Amino acid sequence: MKNDLLVVENLVKYFPIRGGILQRVQNWVRAVDNVSFTIKKGETLGLVGESGCGKSTTGRTILRLTPQTSGKVWFDNKDLFSLGSSEMKKIRRDLQIIFQDPYSSLDPRMIVGESISEGLRAHGIGTPQERRQIVAETLVRVGLRAEHARRYPHEFSGGQRQRIGIARALTMKPKLIIADEPVSALDVSIQSTVLNLLDELQEEMGLTYVFIAHDLSVVEHISDRIGVMYLGKIVELAPRDDLFNDPQHPYTQALLSSIPIPNPHKRRKRIILEGDVPSASNPPPGCRFHTRCPVAVDRCRIDMPDFEEKIAGHFTACHLVEKI
Q1: Nearest residue to 112 (alpha-carbon basis) of 87, 86, 135, 84
Q2: How confident is the model at residue 305, as a pLDDT?
Q3: pTM value > 0.85
Q4: Which residues pair with 15 in a beta bridge?
Q5: Which of 8, 53, 91, 288 lies 20 to 30 A from 33 at CA?
Q6: Kind of pairing, strands 208-213 and 70-75?
Q7: Assign residue 113 a region: left if phi > 0, alpha if psi is -120 to 50, beta otherwise?
């Protein structure tokens, strides 16, 4: 733990479902259910899975933008969930987020320079002149121009707005950035530009990323390790090359089989998953994937598999994967 920048241990986030005249809690949406992982300084951990699997909620709960139900998160050897508001405010300088939608994440009534410097003002960093200088330098660093600080968000394209979102995160010189699907709303040609920018900034500033996405090709490009989520749980976690070359979990195998091969003479055998993803408010017993798994056995329908290290550095939650 001492060598890890971020340690997430048994993180749980349930959302109440209320009903009736008194709006009493009738059930719970199990958005994040017992998620654990670690990240070392300078590393990029990709979180991937279908929409609604809990990956974005995981990121927001780590940052305390969404209150946790239970679990622990240590950042730089500090227990985030035990910190008071004043202590948490200080540590927020080191924890930043890039939001998914570059259109809704910027206030349309504020010029870009004010949006980017908002964190600096909140933490009392620098004089107004120094803050303007920091904003100008950061805009140039992300591929924009200093004079763009005086424009409004509607004057920029989607790719430029996402660069502004990245600039806003960078002004605080953070240690950890949670990138919540930062390229999903962008054209493919712009996606590669933003991904290359994130790579360059990581090397230049020693940043650590939690990169959340549903596109496996994007995650493969930027991640050192990848965690695959399904219905609120991580079902597989491994180094990038290990995951793509030797996926262990049937769900991961199905996801990878859907990636097209850029060669007309090669074909990948598709694994078609039947049925719909179960409701997070009423997950199936046993392995949550067993209702769609093509190789499920009776045990899968009864016992929840442990998330354990089957191969060195390669964690899987599946009864059918043997330890080596």
Answers
A1: 135
A2: 94
A3: yes
A4: 29
A5: 91
A6: unpaired
A7: alpha
